[in-house]
Amino acid sequence: MIENIKEVKKDELLAEVKKFADAKARFVTAVCNDLGDKLEVTYFFNMSPGMEMHGLRMTVGKDEEVPSTTGIFLTTVLIENEMKEMFGLKVKDIAIDFGGHMLLAQDSPVTPMLKTGAAGGKGGE
C-alpha cells in the first residue's frame, strides 16, 4: 500500500489539486488502473524540499466524465491525454486535447489498455 494517498470524489478533485498548487507542490505523474467496471485515477505530487510523495485517488465509472486538472497544472495535459487514449477516461475541459492521437496513430486500436470481455483481456476495436 502506498502511503499519503487521499481518496477523493470527482467533484472534489479540482479543489484538492488546487491545495497542492497553492502549497507550491510539483505535479509528478498520474496513473490509471482499469478495475473492470470502474477506472481508478491517481495523481501524484511532491513537496519541495524532500522526496515524500502525496497522491489523490478517485474511482469513477467508465462512462463518467471527470474534470481536467490542466487549468491548475498545465503539465497534466500529457498524462490526461494519455489516460484518455489508452483507457477511454472521459476528461472534460482539457486545455489541449489531442483528439485521441497524441500517442495513437489514426489506424491504432482504440483504448488499448482498457479491459474488455469477461476474461479481462486488453481492449481495442
Q: What does this protein structure show overall?
A:
With 125 residues, the chain is α/β, with parallel strands linked by helices. It has one domain (5-109): Beta Polymerase, domain 2 (2-Layer Sandwich). The protein is 18% helix and 32% strand. The chain is built from two helices and eight strands. The protein has helices at 13-22, 76-87; strands spanning 5-7, 26-34, 38-46, 53-61, 65-67, 90-92, 115-116, 121-122. The chain has a four-stranded mixed sheet with strand order 1-4-3-2, with helices on one face. Strands 5-6 form a two-stranded parallel sheet. Helix 2 links the parallel strand 5 and strand 6 (90-92). The protein is globular. It starts with a strand and ends with a strand.
Task: Offer a concise description of the structure.
With 125 residues, this protein is α/β, with parallel strands linked by helices.
CATH topology: Beta Polymerase, domain 2
Q: How many helices in DSSP terms?
A: 2
Terminal residue distance? 34 Å
Shape: globular
Please mark out the parts with pLDDT under 50 across 5 or more consecutive residues, or reply none.
Answer: 117-122
Secondary-structure element order, N to C:
EHEEEEHEEE
> What radius of gyration results from the CA coordinates?
15 Å
**Alpha-beta classification:** alpha/beta
Q: Total number of β-strand segments?
A: 8
- Output mean pLDDT: 86
Number of domains: 1
Strand content: 25-35%
Strands of the widest sheet, in order across it, are: 1-4-3-2
Instruction: Tell me roughly what share of residues is in helical segments.
Output: 10-25%
CATH class: Alpha Beta
The CATH superfamily turns out to be: NADH:ubiquinone oxidoreductase Nqo5 subunit
Main pleated sheet = 4 strands, mixed
